[in-house]
Amino acid sequence: MRGWTVGASIALPNLQTPALPGRALNSDLQIRVLGCSGSIAAGSRTTSFLLGQHVLIDAGTGVGDLTLEEMVAIDHVLVTHSHLDHVLSIGLLADSVTRRRHAAGRAPIQVHALPATLAALRAHIFNGVIWPDFTRLPDPAHPVLAFAPLAEGERLTVAGLQVEVLTARHTVPAVGYAVHGPAGAWVFTGDTGRNPALWARLASLDVASLVIETAFRDDELALARLSQHLCPSELRAELAQLRSPVDVYITHIKPGEVDAVMSEIAGQDSPHRIHTLATGQVMHLAQ
Ligand SMILES: [Zn+2]
Ligand SMILES: [Zn+2]
Fold it and tell me: What is the model's pTM?
């Protein structure tokens, strides 16, 4: 595991959401944080989570840290939205694993996203100009990628995981995801500005841990609103809508801004346990 990047005055993140008493550890889902930065620099990778061995949520630059064997095992990519920092590794992943998956007769990797997101990927990335169309390669009858549309509010079973598609409010069509377990849900907001529909849903959900973005500092409130991201003051207003204290993990902070953003959050006297999400961190969800 790599080292932590932790904001000033913020406690080290809990590595583990406590399992229910008596629950065997091997029933926990491991969620590896491959990337959780708003952009790139040495040590900073963009958004991607590996759930167990077979499911990715988003495919930012963090995917590049996986071994080839780990990449070959990925059968599903759940995409939050079409922005480059969340999708740029889909095509590279496909290229890396095509030969091995094809030789093994493996089914296509399912890329799950809103129809608008899939249309954007097809038009702007897998268009034969930016990248080949891997939904038709290595041959159209046995491609390495398949696009699978989803809808807000839908519940999917993905590699045995119960995944709910949450609403997000961003400059392009976007979603978040909740992964359900018996001790509560692991919730990832995706990129989002203020989002009343999310809190309406979370009010009736047992949230084990919440990964939420805070992309800007408060002095960039106008830019945060324009780009439909959160800043600390808006985060506070959003978190105030949770009915009980939860473990909150802050993601999507830009390189070089982590200490500043987390210091602003630490000054808020929140009832929640707020942590900095770190690349290389492994979260756990009872299954
Ligand atoms: Zn975005
Ligand atoms: Zn983003």
Answer: 0.91
